[in-house]
Write a structure and sequence with these properties.
about 190 residues; about 40% helix
Length: about 190
């Protein structure tokens, strides 16, 4: 019997935080799940948070909405913090060091990292970094330049058309995060 090929779910995430540097602020997160021609969008927000927490919350919310396990999950985000943690496996060092950084300081956002790590055994993950806020009305040369940076970071496995589609969903996740933040009172 032939082994059944795992299906892929694409998750596009973004976080936003208006007044990130102030004690009172409003944060929002947005997530889009794309699977088999179906699209699901979700967003929300929190007061007095950070942009990084909103980036992580977007992915947690996306993964929490999955009803089945054993998929390939491709995550696209403009958060270097989020993507680098998984691509470079920072979390493994943090766990070995008792959730301390190499500088012996507590890992920020440990509560959210631990929530994300729960999902790792259930899916085959790939994490991809995309520059945020790529305008659909940008000049062709700008889009091509952004595509070159995208493939430099993520490999040559994406066509230019794939990149444009990913950028479209990334912009939409950004809009959703802004909606989430706008509904929060700081």
């Amino acid at each position: 019997m032939e082994e059944q090929k795992k299906q892929t779910i694409n998750i596009y995430t973004d976080g936003a935080c208006s007044g990130n540097q102030f004690e009172k602020n409003a944060g929002g997160w947005g997530v889009i799940l794309e699977y088999g021609g179906h699209i699901k969008e979700n967003f929300g927000g929190e007061p007095n948070t950070t942009n990084n927490r909103m980036e992580m919350t977007a992915l947690i919310e996306g993964l929490s909405s999955l009803t089945k396990k054993n998929y390939n999950v491709w995550v696209f985000s403009d958060s270097s913090y989020l993507i680098n943690c998984f691509q470079k496996r920072w979390y493994e060092k943090w766990e070995r060091n008792g959730w301390l950084t190499s500088g012996k300081k507590p890992v920020e956002n440990r509560d959210l990292w631990e929530k994300l790590l729960v999902f790792l055994p259930d899916y085959e993950f790939s994490f991809f970094h995309i520059k945020g806020h790529i305008s659909k009305s940008a000049r062709e040369a700008t889009l091509r330049s952004n595509y070159a940076r995208f493939t430099e970071k993520n490999g040559k496995g994406f066509s230019y058309e794939n990149f444009l589609e990913i950028a479209k969903y990334n912009r939409r996740a950004d809009e959703l995060a802004s909606f989430g933040a706008s509904g929060v009172r700081a």
